[in-house]
Specification:
Largest interface: A-B, 30 and 23 residues
Structural class of chain B: mainly alpha
Number of strands of chain A: 7
Helix content of chain B: over 70%
Distance between the termini of chain A: 83 Å
Shape of chain A: globular
Largest sheet of chain B: none
Number of strands of chain B: 0
Number of helices of chain A: 11
Strand content of chain B: under 5%
Oligomer: heterodimer
Chain lengths: ~290, ~130
C-alpha cells in the first residue's frame, strides 16, 4: 500500500501530531490549574480549607476551631477552661463599656454609630466607595471623627478596650463576611497572597505553620488551624499580660519569622483579616478570650 | 587675483592653527582625565567616601525591599548601626554593617520575586 519512504513520512507526521496533542493537553491542563488558583473563588477556598482541616482533625468539628488549639489539645483546653472561670479580660470589657458610653467631643457617643455594640459580625467589610477593607477599629475612629474627636492610636489600650466590649456584646453572632464585588475580591486575594507568602529571614509563610503543620508542635505549643483564627479577638495573652488586638498578633508572628512587621490597621493586615474572616464564615464569634 | 596670491599662505596657516587647537584640546582632555583618575584614586583611598557609598547602596536596596513589602527585620538594624558607625568615624565598621544590610536586602528581594507565584501552591485544593 505505501512504500518505505511514504511510510516513514506518515509515521513521522503521526508522532509529531501526537507530541503536539500531548503538549497542548499539558499546557491546557496547566493553564486550567493555574487559572483556578490565580482567579480566586472564595467559597471554593473556604470549602477546601474546611475539608482539609476535617481530614487533619477528624475528631474536631469545623466550628470547634473557634477555640483555636483548645479545640484539639485536651490538656491546654482544661487549663484554658479554668482560666475562663475568672477571665482576666473582664476588666477590659468593663473599661470598654465605660468608654463606649463616654460622651465624645460633640456630646454624642459610640452608640450613635454602633447601637448597643453587638456589631462585630458586620466587620470587616469591603467599602466600595473608599475602595478598602473597613475593620471595626477603623469604624471606631471614623465614628470619633464624625463626632469631632481625635482618632485613637491603633496600638493603644483605649481602642482595644472598646473592641473588647463590642466583641463581648457580639458573642454568639455568626461570622458572615461577603466578597461581593471586584474590589472586594482583589482585597480578599491580597490577603490570601499575604497569608501564603514566605517572608522574613526564616522564610516562613503563615500557611507553613497554620496549614501545612497545623496540629503539630512548635516547641511546647500546638499550632492552630486557620479556621477560627479571627473569631476570638481581642484576646488577653498571658505573654502580654494585657488584652491585645488581632493585628498585634499578626505583627508578632511576622516578627517571629524575622520580617519587619507592618503597622496595625495597615492595608496589608486589613486585607489579611478580611481573607481570614471569610475563611471562618459560619463560625461563631467568641471574643474576647484568653490565649497563652 | 589678490585672493589667489594669498591662498598659498592661508592654507598652511589655517592648518597650523587647527593643529594647535587640537593639541590644546587633547592636552585639556588628558588633564581632565588625569584629574578624574586622581579623584577616583583619592575616593578609593578615602574610607569615609567608601563607607558613604556602601551605606547609600544598602539604603537603596532596603528601600526596594520595603517597596516589595518584604523587609527582613535585621536589615534596618544593620543600617542603623552602619549609620552610627559612619557618624562615629568607624568606617570599616560602617562598611561591614552596610554590606551585610545590602546582602540581606538582596536576599529579601529574591524572596519577594520568588513569592510572586510560589504562594499559589500553598493552599489545600478542592478534591
Amino acid at each position: 500500500m505505501f512504500n518505505g519512504k511514504e511510510f516513514t513520512t506518515i509515521r513521522r507526521s503521526a508522532i509529531a501530531a501526537m507530541l503536539l496533542a500531548l503538549s497542548s493537553y499539558s499546557l491546557l491542563g496547566y493553564m486550567a490549574i493555574f487559572s483556578h488558583q490565580a482567579v480566586a473563588d472564595p467559597e471554593a477556598d473556604r470549602q477546601a480549607m474546611r475539608t482539609f482541616y476535617q481530614k487533619r482533625f477528624p475528631d474536631v468539628a469545623p466550628e470547634a476551631h473557634k477555640d483555636g488549639v483548645y479545640a484539639f489539645d485536651e490538656n491546654a483546653r482544661e487549663q484554658w477552661l479554668e482560666l475562663e472561670d475568672f477571665p482576666p479580660y473582664e476588666i477590659a470589657i468593663d473599661e470598654g463599656q465605660e468608654l463606649f458610653a463616654t460622651p465624645l467631643a460633640d456630646g454624642g457617643n459610640y452608640s450613635d454609630c454602633f447601637g448597643d455594640g453587638a456589631v462585630k459580625n458586620r466587620f470587616p467589610y469591603f467599602d466600595e466607595q473608599q475602595g478598602e477593607v473597613i475593620t471595626l477599629e477603623l469604624a471606631i475612629n471614623t465614628c470619633r471623627d464624625q463626632h469631632g474627636d481625635q482618632p485613637l492610636p491603633y496600638n493603644g489600650a483605649e481602642i482595644t478596650r472598646l473592641t473588647a466590649y463590642i466583641a463581648f456584646q457580639s458573642r454568639g453572632q455568626t461570622i458572615a463576611v461577603a466578597v461581593a464585588n471586584e474590589g472586594a475580591l482583589a482585597a480578599y486575594n491580597d490577603g490570601k497572597r499575604f497569608y501564603a507568602s514566605r517572608r522574613g529571614q526564616l522564610n516562613f509563610a503563615c500557611t507553613s505553620c497554620h496549614v501545612q503543620l497545623a496540629g503539630n508542635r512548635l516547641r511546647a505549643e500546638h499550632l492552630s488551624a486557620s479556621l477560627g483564627q479571627v473569631s476570638h479577638w481581642p484576646a488577653y495573652r498571658l505573654k502580654w499580660q494585657d488584652v491585645g488586638s488581632l493585628h498585634q498578633r499578626f505583627a508578632r508572628c511576622i516578627k517571629q519569622v524575622g520580617a519587619e512587621p507592618f503597622p496595625p490597621q495597615s492595608k496589608e493586615y486589613r486585607n489579611l483579616e478580611y481573607f481570614l474572616t471569610y475563611i471562618s464564615n459560619g463560625l461563631p464569634l467568641n471574643g474576647p478570650s484568653i490565649r497563652k | 587675483m589678490k585672493i589667489l596670491n594669498i591662498f598659498p599662505i592661508t592654507v598652511p596657516l589655517l592648518a597650523v592653527l587647527l593643529l594647535a587647537a587640537c593639541t590644546d584640546q587633547s592636552q585639556e582632555q588628558s588633564q581632565e582625565q588625569s584629574q578624574e583618575q586622581s579623584n577616583e584614586q583619592s575616593a578609593a583611598e578615602d574610607p569615609a567616601l567608601l563607607a558613604r557609598e556602601a551605606l547609600d547602596q544598602a539604603q537603596a536596596q532596603y528601600d526596594a525591599s520595603r517597596q516589595a513589602g518584604h523587609v527582613w527585620a535585621r536589615t534596618p538594624v544593620l543600617l542603623k548601626s552602619a549609620t552610627e558607625a559612619l557618624a562615629a568615624g568607624d568606617f570599616s565598621g560602617a562598611i561591614s554593617a552596610a554590606d551585610q544590610a545590602t546582602r540581606l536586602a538582596d536576599a529579601s528581594l529574591t524572596q519577594a520575586q520568588a513569592e510572586q507565584t510560589a504562594w499559589l501552591h500553598r493552599f489545600p485544593k478542592m478534591p
